[in-house]
From TrEMBL:
Residues 7-223 form the Restriction endonuclease type I HsdR N-terminal domain. Its EC number is 3.1.21.3. Signal peptide: none annotated. Belongs to the HsdR family. It catalyses: Endonucleolytic cleavage of DNA to give random double-stranded fragments with terminal 5'-phosphates, ATP is simultaneously hydrolyzed. GO terms for molecular function: ATP binding; DNA binding; type I site-specific deoxyribonuclease activity. This is type I site-specific deoxyribonuclease. It comes from the Bacteria. It comes from Azotobacter beijerinckii. The keyword Nucleotide-binding applies. InterPro entries: P-loop_NTPase, Restrct_endonuc_type1_HsdR_N, SWI2_SNF2, Type-I_R_enzyme_R_subunit. Residues 416-451 are annotated as: Disordered.
Length: 451
């Protein structure tokens, strides 16, 4: 415990404090120290009420009364489902979309008003707290040998747990495997996987948790609820939501010549703006093998999407530049590296950006099977994809006013006056041959690679 605390946990907390997190030392005896009425509670309800009142304003002034606040707190603390993944999905939806409560007479026609648990657009309006040794009691009837759990670090936003961190000394054998196993034990996933017979935790702590981190300082991995060790991944970028950031700058700020995996993960994923960005735009619930799984983007996808969004925001149009549109770019993907999910993350981020939310997204592929795969995955954006079945269909969908998500094969762009019919390219055909079959095409200066 000594080495773990000194070599891993304390540096973790110190770096978070440098990024704007407030540290609260935990207590195993008094829940009030960590802002709770009892150790059975997982949310800091007083902090949540204070932030709900502060970030949900009417004409710049607080308007939420105790009744409406109680309704919002009850919704996030009493989710009404016994299964952890279902509870997590419900809590995540509340975090992202908010909850509608009764409005006020004389305001907006008395309509119900949506109140948000987190101010996603202005991170500074939220309260970021890291608590070490966050005791949570197990429910009555659980194995008598496990009356409570004590995660090393819990990161809370507005009093709601969003991240749980387990630290292990680098001197122990396989520290990351041990840390992940402990996270699975704390979230009762070993019981869910029939690896043990007894309940081992209070799953309620993890109902709102978005990220799980295992660290031994030199090595660090991040995963989601339900993930095993194989699905925890490194985070290898410090690029932020604005598409900018360098390791040299972060290392210099820490007085280091190079970053450890822990330092890189904290700087690139747990800085307040990054954390809110990832939770809002880069996490998905998906169906796989007949069950729901939760996934978070890989660092390459995060970096590529944010650089693409920055380019769209700041790049010159053809009219402004005088020669060519400067808002394009290339994102390289190897086979199976998640190009369809990168597309989903990009669309999700576009739709929350005031400057870009009305952009129409047109996805062009060279194969029908790829178009089918991508259009099915695209439903995860929350939008209904439209598939163009002809050249005229592409034109009609592109001309339609407002945002949209359109799919077409490159053959739909061919010149109908050219001789021959390229047809649809099948699996295994060369993209270069497909382009050649469409007749001549104009080449231009290569796009900058964004990832």
């Amino acid at each position: 415990m000594g080495w773990e605390l000194e070599d891993v946990e304390k540096p973790f907390v110190a770096q978070l404090e440098g990024l704007g997190w407030t540290h609260v030392g935990g207590s195993l005896d008094d829940p009030a120290v960590t802002g709770r009425g009892s150790f059975a509670e997982v949310v800091q309800e007083a902090a949540l009420r204070e932030r709900l009142r502060a970030i949900n304003l009417r004409d710049g002034e607080p308007w939420l009364d105790d009744t409406r606040l109680a309704e919002a707190v009850a919704a996030i603390t009493r989710l009404g489902t016994a299964k952890l993944m279902e509870a997590n999905q419900k809590a995540t939806e509340l975090l992202l979309k908010g909850i509608t409560v009764d409005g006020l007479a004389g305001w907006d026609g008395g309509r119900g008003q949506t109140i948000q648990y987190i101010d996603w657009d202005t991170p500074a309006n939220n309260r970021f707290t890291v608590v070490n040794q966050y005791r949570v009691d197990c429910p009555p009837g659980y194995d008598s040998g496990k009356k409570f759990i004590v995660p090393d670090l819990v990161l809370l936003v507005n009093g709601i747990p969003l991240v749980v961190v387990e630290c292990k000394s680098p001197s122990v054998p396989e520290p990351l495997a041990e840390a992940v196993d402990q996270l699975r034990r704390y979230s009762n996933q070993r019981k869910a996987s029939f690896e043990v017979e007894d309940n081992e935790s209070n799953e309620q702590l993890f109902a709102s948790v978005q990220l799980l981190v295992a660290s031994s300082f030199d090595a660090a991995r991040v995963g989601c609820i339900g993930a095993g060790l194989a699905h925890y991944a490194q985070w290898k970028t410090v690029v932020g939501p604005d598409g900018r950031g360098s390791e040299q700058e972060v290392a210099a700020a820490l007085g280091k010549s190079a970053l450890s995996e822990q330092e890189r993960l904290i700087a690139g994923l747990l800085a307040p703006a990054q954390l809110l960005d990832v939770v809002r735009h880069f996490m998905l619930f998906m169906q796989a093998g007949g069950q729901t799984i939760k996934t978070v983007c890989r660092y390459q996808q995060y970096r590529a999407v944010n650089r693409a969004v920055t380019r769209l925001r700041t790049g010159q149009t053809r009219l402004e530049h005088g020669e060519s549109d400067q808002r394009g770019g290339i994102v390289w993907h190897t086979q199976g590296s998640g190009k369809s999910l990168t597309m989903v993350f990009l669309v999700r981020k576009l739709r929350t950006d005031a400057q870009l939310r009305r952009f129409k997204v047109i996805v062009v592929t060279d194969r029908k099977d790829l178009q089918k795969q991508l259009s099915e995955t695209a439903t995860l954006t929350g939008e209904r994809p439209e598939v163009a079945s002809s050249t005229e269909g592409v034109k009609a969908l592109a001309r339609r006013k407002g945002p949209g998500l359109v799919f077409a094969t490159i053959q739909k762009y061919r010149n109908p006056e050219l001789e021959g019919d390229a047809g649809e390219q099948q699996e295994g055909a060369s993209p270069a041959k497909a382009a050649e079959s469409q007749g001549t095409y104009r080449s231009s200066k290569p796009f900058e690679v964004l990832n």
